[in-house]
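Memo to structure team: turn this sequence into structure tokens by end of day. - J.P.
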Amino acid sequence: MESPEQVFNGIVKEYSERLYWHVRRMVGSHEDADDLLQDIFLKIWTALPSFRGEAQLYTWVWRIATNESLNWLRREKLRAALHFASADDLVVRRIEADPYFNGTAAQRELAKAVARLPEKQRQVFIMRWWDELSYEQISAITGTSVGALKASYHIAQEKLKLNLSESEVSK
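Reply from structure team:
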């Protein structure tokens, strides 16, 4: 039987990179994702003794990461409201200013457009498009029905098409 430390080390080894990118796509910047990932692994470590195996380990880890990212985004939204700013605009500015962003201009525009989506649509789009999770996996992570997820994803795609075509026209 593996010790808790061995199990945790295995989780870190197996999921670090994928979780980092999942979190980064949700929060928009390297520094914030890096800090948040440390908090997520701390939460996983403290919750590990209570993991009963009713869910797949992957789903359980992803749920923790997603919930922590959403909590972080909610705190940012509150912080932004206190400064009379939009949280989405703050995330977009972080994407624009991120020195670690190494994508093309089109990828940066897509990241900014995704940051402007409503929270649920953003979450579903990130997990389906970038993380390549099935609707069933996303459903297990979010507790949302597959049908609702498909609808949210479709609406997100339509909004992204519209937003990206508008940003092309405004250039």
